[in-house]
Every structure is written in structure tokens, then in C-alpha cells.
Amino acid sequence: MTATEPQFVLAAVIASLFALGTFLVLRRDIVRVVWGVSIISQAANMYLVTMGGFAGSVPILGHGGGHGGETTITDPLVQALVLTAIVIGFGTTAFALVLTYRVYEEHGTIDLFELGERA
Amino acid sequence: MNQAVIAPLLVALITAIGTLLTRRFSRVQIGLSLAGSLGYLVAVYAFVTEVDPLGAANTFSYQLSGWVAPYGITLVADPLSAFMLSFSAIISLGALVYSAVYVDSFGQRVSYHPLYHFMMVGVTGSFLTGDIFNLFVWFEVMLMSSYVLVVFYSGPEQTRAALQYVVLNLVGSAVMLLAIGGLYSTTGTLNMADLAQTLQAGGTAPAPVLGLSALLFAVFALKAGLVPFQFWVPAAYRAAPAPVSAMLAGVVKKVGVYAIVRLYFTVFGAATLGELALPGFSGESLLSFYGPILFVMASASILVGGFGAVGRDDIDGLLAYSSIGQVGFIVLPLGIAATSGDPTIQTLGIAAALVYALNHGFAKGLLFLASGAVYDTVGTTEFPDLGGLSEKAPVLSASFFVGALALIGIPPLSGFFGKLLVFDTAGQAGSNLGLAVALIGAILTIAYFSRAWNRGFWGEPSLLVQHGDSRTSLVAVVLLLAVAIVILGVGFDVVYRAAEAGADAALNRQAYIDAVLQGGEQA
């Protein structure tokens, strides 16, 4: 397998994740909307990792950074960025779910259409 | 290395953590919170003295943990961030003193103070950072706190508004992450100064830079509440407690405006369009592409906000729509400046936007706090139940009047100069359409504030108003902000020179690059 091949596969996967996320965000059920939002943000994370490229070995200096006979090292910065983004995403998803529960408690429904009609 | 750069950030962070730890001792917590906000003002003052916008106008950087740019995260101090920080510090202190009285003691004990200060941490970080991914992190810090503050009362209206606000901003964050990832993969850097240098040197394909910067632009427009990304504004501002609405409209919205000025004028302006330049557009710079976009969005905001506000039946709703229109007034001169290649008009346009942002921050902050005081007095802000407030609460009404006049633009208040500069920018650039839109906006502003004044404050006091009782401490804060608006108008020379220094700093790309990448102080 050449170094560029997984990127094409991942591009297709990311595209379908974005499509799925967008589809879920447009649903009437709030829980699905929250699902959709977290899928979109995970797709964004995957996009970041893919953008860093896959040519080269794991960026771990302590291990010599030269596994698998590769001479170059994959860009470690995007992975650090994605770690930060995952932590933030974890917090926001938790909050969104709690908020969904509060919406249910206050309105007795998680249907966005009904929620809109009560405004 | 200059420690004054990081001082405001650290003070806000320590205050936030301190108020979190002292939750059990409500008096200590409030004392600490107020002291922290005062300390923040002092730190910002030290920051401004170091930058010296009216004199040397220094631009200098602070490399976090000593990692040299472009590898580490850089904080940058320049007259532009000094301008934004100083007015945010004053408004946030005012709103915090007000909150200590206004927000119920249970709410304050649970989470209000830590959230408020974490929001200030996010705002400060966004104004200081010189790294686009770090900007994303500060945005998230600011947004996370603002989510909880919007849903603070946690009633039916609040949960619904917060849900809309949260989902929109989460999608916005994902889009921002995409744009940042794309920019990194196109240009190979996240440092704003390094990005500007890379773009200036050419050699990067213009098409992806244009597309990704446009994606990023949508996120900033969402934060600033520009049409067509304005629909979350009215619900969120009405749901949040009054001092939080004052902060959201007065300070948090300005972060979006600041990001547009910093990234598009300082950074992306360095890129050339090459073969992408559209016929009929002036200029080769990427910035000239955003001129018409900013102009159309600003004009639409002025009209949507203005007409929306005229039709509202409650003070909060009116103020929320009014902020959509007023952000249009801030962005309109930016649009004209971006289209024009003339450096004098660019400086004037950015200075006009900064002055208007300052004026809107103070005036809208005051008006939201006044609306909260009205609610505290009467129990409602719906016009049918109000009337005759000027008899019952003369000081509060007079302060509201000053705030309204400042947004309408009556001399000698700061709003007059803000409007004058917007008109001046449009006039000097020969943009008749800009003049027409600004004029319609000004007339609409007069219309909706006259309506608010007539229905809420003049006439016979209604039954609810007669039985209401206003709290002196709340009114005192509102009055102080009204006095501040008058002072800003009378001492406008200083404000204008600071705004001009900020505009010069935003346009002086080389000084920004040198300050970050060489770490030296630039005059």
C-alpha cells in the first residue's frame, strides 16, 4: 500500500460522516441533533489527522522515531491539536446532553417541532 | 519577554479558580470576585501603559513557556488588543458589580462568579493570542461559560434559547476546526505572524487560502451575530440574566469583530488573489474580496436589526435586535476599508469600527443593565405593562435616555463621533450606497428608541410601575455607565487617538510579524 492510499479511503469516510452528521442535525429529535453535532466534530478531528499526512513513522522521539524503515516522521502537531479538540468536544457533548435532559424536564418533550410551537 | 502581556489573562484565571474554591463562603466569594475584576482592570492598565498606544505604540510578544515562535504559542500585545481589552475591562467590572446585587444569592453561590470570570479568561485570551488554533481554544473557553450563563435561570425559555445557541456554536466550532486544519495543511503554520509572512512571500495556492479563510469568516460572523448568522441573538440575549446580556452584547460580540480585523486585515490581507481576482473588484489583495461581503452583511444587519427592533414589544427584545443592527454599523466601515486600497481610508475605516465598537459596548451594556433594573423594579419589560417610568424612577430613566442617545448618536456623547466616523469613511471612499444604508440605519435607531421611550418611560405610570420599587445599587451602576459615556464623548480626543493607533497596528503587518518572529519591540 502506498502512503497516499489511506488518505483517499479516509476522505470518503470523512465525507460520509459529515453527511451523516448533517442529516442528524436536521432531525426533529434533540438527542439525534446532539448526536449529529458530535459526529460532525469527530469528522472535523479526523479531517485534521488526515491533513497531517500518513507518510512517515510514529512521532515518538524516545523510540528513535524511525519505525518501519521510514526515514521521515509524521507531523505530530495535528495530533496534539486533535487531542485538545477531543477534550473540548467531550465537555461540550456532555453539556449538550445535560441540556437536552433539562429541556425535557422543562417542556416535557424533546421534539423540536413541538418546542418551536410553544415559543 | 514582557510579563505585562500575560498579566490580564493570569488575573482573570486566578480569580475564576479562586471564586470556584470559595463557593461555600458567599461573602468571601463575592469579595474575591470583585477584587479580581478590579485587579483585572489594574492588569489591563499595566498592559496599556506598556503598549502606550498614544505615544510609542509598541507591539511586542510573549512566548509562552519560552517556546520560540512559530513553534510555541505566542501572545501579542499591540494598540489594537490594548483598545479592546481596556473597554472590556471597564464594562466587565460594571456588569460584575451589578450582578453581585442583581443575581440571586443561590445562583451566585452555585456557579455565577466562576463562569463570569472564565468567560473573561476566554475573551482576554482571544484578544491576546497570536496563534489561530489557540484562538479556537479561547473561543471554546468563552463559549462554554456563556452556554451555562445563557441557560442560567434554567426555565422553559432559557433551556430553549440555550439549546439553539449551543447547537449553533458547536457546529460553528467544528467548522472553525476544519478551516484551521485546512489552513495548516495549506500554509504549514498556525502562528498568525508566520502565516502572514508565508502568505506575503507568495508561493501558496490562493484558492484554498481564500476558501478556508471564507469558512473561518462564517464562524466569526456567527460570533458577531451578523446577518445571515443573526437568528440566535434575540432568544439568547432575552434568556440570559441582564448583566450577562450586557456582557454578551457589549464584550463577547466584539471578539468576533476583533477576530475579523486581526485575521483579515493583518493576516489574510497579505495574500494576493492572482488569477482569482474577479472583474470589477479593486485590488489584488485577498482582503479586497471580503470588502463586498462585509459590506452586504453589514447592510443587511443594519436593516434586519433596525426593522426588527421597531416591531418589538419588550425592552430586551428591542435591545437584542438593536445589537444586530449596531454590529452592522461596526462592520460597515470595515467593509468599505477592505474594498478600498487607500491606506488613509483603511485606517479611518478600522478606527471608525473600533470607536463604534467601544460606543456600542458601553451604550448597549448600559441599556441591558437598565432593562434589568426595570425588570427588578416592575417585574416585566413588556411595553404594554410599562409606562411612566420617568416619574417613578427618574435616575434610571435618565440613564436609559443617555444610553439611547449614545446609540442614536447625539453630540457630545461618544456615539455621535462613532456615527460621524462611519459616515466620514463612507463619504471619503465615495460610497453613496454606504451613506444611504447608514442613514436608514440611523433613522431606524431614532424610531425604535423613540418608541421605547414613549411607551416605557413617558405617560401615566401603569399599575405595575406605581407599585414598583427600584434598588439604588442597581441604578447607581447604570448611572455610572451613563456618566462614563458622557466622559468618553467629552474626552473623545484620547479615544480617537487610541482607536487610530489600534487601526495603524492592525494594518502594520510588518511590525506585527517582526514583533512575533524576532521577539523584539517595534516602535
Please estimate the helix content of chain B: over 70%
Order of helices and strands of chain A: HHHH
Main sheet makeup of chain A: none
Radius of gyration of chain B: 22 Å
Query: Helices and strands of chain A: which structural class?
Result: mainly alpha
> Mind describing the biggest β-sheet of chain B?
2 strands, antiparallel
Are there runs of chain A of 5+ residues with pLDDT below 50, and where?
none
Helix content of chain A: 55-70%
Name the overall outline of chain A: elongated
Considering residues with a beta carbon less than 8 A from a beta carbon on another chain, report the largest interface and each chain's count.
A-B, 33 and 30 residues
Query: What's the total helix number of chain A?
Result: 4
Low-confidence stretches of chain B: none
Topology, please?
The complex is a heterodimer of chains A (119) and B (523).
Chain A: H1 5-25, H2 30-51, H3 77-107, H4 112-117
Chain B: H1 7-21, H2 26-51, E1 60-63, E2 74-77, H3 79-102, H4 105-128, H5 132-150, H6 156-187, H7 192-201, H8 206-224, H9 233-239, H10 242-267, H11 286-310, H12 315-339, H13 343-378, H14 389-392, H15 394-408, H16 414-428, H17 432-457, H18 463-467, H19 472-490, H20 492-507, H21 509-517
Antiparallel strand pairs in B: 1-2
Textual characterization of the structure:
The complex is a heterodimer of chains A (119) and B (523). With 119 residues, chain A is mainly alpha-helical. Chain A contains 4 helices and no strands. Helix content of chain A is 67%, strand content 0%. In chain A, helix 1 (5-25) runs antiparallel to helix 2 (30-51). The N and C termini of chain A lie far apart (56 Å). With 523 residues, chain B is an all-alpha fold. Chain B is 76% helix and 2% strand. The chains are: A mainly alpha (119), B mainly alpha (523). At the A-B interface, helix 2 and helix 3 of A face helix 5 and helix 6 of B.
